[in-house]
Design a protein that fits this description.
It is a single chain. The protein is built from 16 helices and two strands. It has a two-stranded antiparallel sheet. A hairpin with a 4-residue loop joins strand 1 and strand 2. The chain is globular, with a radius of gyration of 23 Å.
Length: 366
């Protein structure tokens, strides 16, 4: 119960505050024009990871309720929060290629804030839908004379079925032309209301998504930015309070991940082939493909000559699985134990692979 409450606190409070304040403080119109390839780079990495994850699911014959978890772990990386730790640390470290850059720390925070926002939208919209879709037990249609009721139930790891998701009543059709028009309008109206009230659409406009939009607006709109950000800003206390709340996001998520890793020590039913496959995808295949993609983008003039910027683009492919996936598994009650085992071994492998890839990427861009 405490873990689930912590997940909801991070989802509704800490992470939205962190994302909104980070974007508002670091993002400008000029930055968007310069860093336009970074969101595209994140999408490319997620698409490649999803494809590799789907192949892994087919090869290993993963149980249906775990397929969404496996694809999500192969697709989404812990890019935002990890980069918020790694990039500023590299700027302050001696004998690194980036220590001489005067704007290294500021750029590092900005480079980490944008992936954090983009990945949050991707995780809580696309991956949430994928995990929930594979957790669905089945779809059953009940035909009556005047209506068709579609009932979708989902099963969680504890065997409980979910709520009824969609129920559409279709008005009875008659031969009368006027009644037929009313019936068609009724169908459209009820279909629209069903879509608007669906949980999947609500997750697209999750708190993280709304915070991203607000952060972009504050960062791009100069009058709003001047009113909230800066020592002389009249509303700086509002921004400072939100920023203070957001600073609790990364430690809280880290604690949740630690709890998941502790569960992973107890073991679960996930196969060794699935764990090895995810480790290979996240620590070998994706980092290697990132080199080809970033080099090709630089060749065609899509990426500027900044070595720190290129290093950040490359590093996005070498991150371990995203921590928000665990939050989704806990919210849906699907594959919590299996995800804990996957996270345990993925982060053990990442402790070594991330160090090697970081050193190799620094050598590659300098």
């Amino acid at each position: 119960m405490i873990a689930r409450s912590s997940v909801q606190l991070v989802f509704y409070v800490f992470f939205p505050a962190l994302i909104g304040c980070s974007l508002a403080d670091t993002m400008t119109v000029k930055d968007l024009a310069t860093w336009w390839f970074m969101p595209l780079n994140i999408i490319i990495s997620c698409v490649i990871g999803s494809g590799l994850g789907w192949i892994l699911v087919m090869i290993t014959r993963t149980p249906r309720h775990l397929r969404g978890i496996v694809i999500a772990c192969s697709s989404a990386a812990n890019t935002g929060s990890t980069l918020l730790i790694i990039l500023p640390a590299l700027c302050e470290e001696r004998n690194t290629p980036f220590e001489h850059l005067s704007t290294c720390s500021a750029d590092g925070k900005a480079y980490a804030s944008l992936p954090l926002a983009i990945l949050s939208i991707y995780v809580w919209s696309v991956l949430y839908f994928i995990i929930r879709m594979y957790a669905n037990h089945g779809v059953k249609e009940i035909n009556t004379n005047d209506s068709i009721i579609i009932v979708t139930t989902s099963v969680s790891s504890n065997g409980c079925s979910g709520d009824v998701l969609d129920q559409v009543d279709l008005p009875h059709q008659t031969d009368n032309e006027g009644n037929e028009k009313i019936s068609t309008f009724g169908k459209l109206k009820q279909s629209f209301m069903m879509i608007m009230s669906s949980r999947s659409l609500k997750m697209v406009f999750a708190p993280s998504t709304i915070a991203t939009i607000v952060g972009f607006i504050i960062g791009i709109a100069s009058p709003v930015r001047k009113a909230l950000i800066g020592d002389s800003a009249p509303l700086r206390v509002v921004f400072s309070s939100a920023e203070l709340i957001g600073e609790a996001g990364i430690p809280s998520v880290t604690l949740i991940v630690g709890a998941n890793l502790l569960k992973g020590l107890r073991g679960s039913g996930v196969g060794a082939s699935i764990i090895i496959g995810i480790i290979v995808i996240r620590n070998i295949l994706l980092p290697a493909s990132g080199i080809a993609i970033v080099k090709a983008a630089k060749h065609f003039g899509m990426v500027d000559s900044s070595s720190f910027y290129q290093f950040t683009l490359l590093l996005q492919y070498a991150m371990p699985p995203g921590m928000n996936i665990g939050s989704i598994s806990q919210m849906l009650g699907v594959g919590e134990g299996e995800f804990s085992v996957i996270m345990l071994w993925s982060y053990v492998a990442a402790a070594f692979s991330l160090t090697l890839w970081t050193a190799f990427y620094m050598w590659l861009v300098t």
